[in-house]
Amino acid sequence: MRRSTKVCLALGGLFAALSLVWMVCLPRIVERELRTTTGFDVRVAVLKVDPFTGRVVVAGLTAKNPPTYPLADFFVLRELRADVNVLSWFFSDQFVINELDVDTSEIALVRQHDGKSNAGEFMSAFSGGGHRTASTHKPRRFLVKKLHIRLEKLYVADYTGMATDKKTYQLNIDQTYTDVTDPRELLVPGVVRTLYSFGLHHDFAKLLPGPLGQALADTVGGAAHVGTALKAAVQKAGESLKGTIDKLEQSPKP
């Protein structure tokens, strides 16, 4: 066997071994980093990342709340698939994802007596307020060219009042978006109608941090205001019509 052939076979074997180690060790590395950064018990069943093509596959991603929370579960992500533009990561100030598919089984939003929420603590860990000091660099802009989101169940537990407010919402959201550059763009009319139809009345600005929580609170609150105003208008119109009919009936017949 020629020397060059042996070298190629050796390099191929080494590359295969390194790929196997990468696939086996990567989920455990990510789990450890996320636990250290957030303080939440994060588990990943499957994690595949191809740094050359930008393909990412995550399956069985779960997070448990810290022991200080009265409820254990935070979220269950069935699967996430992404096609990332690798060049944008290195050579652009806008991170580009060509396709992103997120399938979430359930999310449990919990707000404690002191006003802190699990979503708030989890997300603040990546913006400088978590267990580890984060970078002070300005957040990069992003673009998701095609986004598909599925959310089956939302559970809300608010412990800030005199009595605990708990409720489960079977949302079954299945929504596709294009050219997303801001989380607030997720609140399209179809999603808002779904949230409003379930009577979501919680203060999402305090349950969810950042612009998405504020936008969700404003949107659901606005829909509730419009719905109440419309109902009042219909009721007033009905009462006016009834009054007119009663007057006609009471009028003397010719």
Proportion in β-strands: 25-35%
Outline type: globular
| Model regions low in confidence, pLDDT < 50 over at least 5 residues | 9-22, 223-234
Gyration radius over CA: 26 Å
Structural class label: alpha+beta
What is the typical, i.e. mean, pLDDT? 78
Number of strands: 6
Q: Biggest sheet, strands in spatial order?
A: 1-2-3-4-5-6
**Main sheet attributes: strand count, strand direction, barrel closure:** 6 strands, mixed
Distance from N terminus to C terminus (CA atoms, Å) equals 119 Å
Describe the 3D structure.
With 254 residues, this protein is α+β, with helices and mostly antiparallel strands. The protein has helices spanning 3-38, 86-91, 118-124, 189-197, 204-207, 210-250, and strands spanning 41-50, 55-64, 73-84, 94-111, 141-158, 165-180. The protein has one domain (3-181). Helix content is 41%, strand content 33%. Strand 4, helix 3 and strand 5 (141-158) form a beta-alpha-beta unit. Helix 4 crosses helix 6. The protein starts with a helix and ends with a helix. Mean pLDDT is 78; it is low at 9-22 and 223-234.
List keywords for this structure.
254 residues, alpha+beta, single chain, 41% helix, 6-stranded mixed beta sheet
Q: Topology, pairings included?
A:
Layout: H1 3-38, E1 41-50, E2 55-64, E3 73-84, H2 86-91, E4 94-111, H3 118-124, E5 141-158, E6 165-180, H4 189-197, H5 204-207, H6 210-250
